[in-house]
Fold:
Amino acid sequence: MAENSNQQVTERKVQVSLCWSLTARHVHELSLQVPEGSTLADVLSLAAELETLNLLKLQTPGIWGRKVPWTHVVQEGDRIEFYRPLQVDPKVARRQRFKRQGKGRTGLFANRKSGSAAGY
Structure:
């Protein structure tokens, strides 16, 4: 009888989803049933039948928008995400957009009171 209860414990599965995007605006999602107590590395090896998942080993893993190490144990309902490295620093990109748009037409500066200093 002890063997049956051990088998039930080892057969417990949790539902997780893998989300990744190798290029901009092309998001892929895969739902998996994995054994309870699996780490991120275990989940990726279980889903390794897809060729593109091998590329995910080079990316940073996270769960629900927070970076986590590969040794993190997954839980029921986790959304495992893989983050590409940034192409451009977000601060630099914002600065460039602001230059293109001009300071007087958009954002905080669109409805400036007459006689006030720029940016206020």
The mean pLDDT is 77. The CA atoms of residues 2 and 8 lie 10 Å apart. DSSP finds three helices and five strands in the chain.
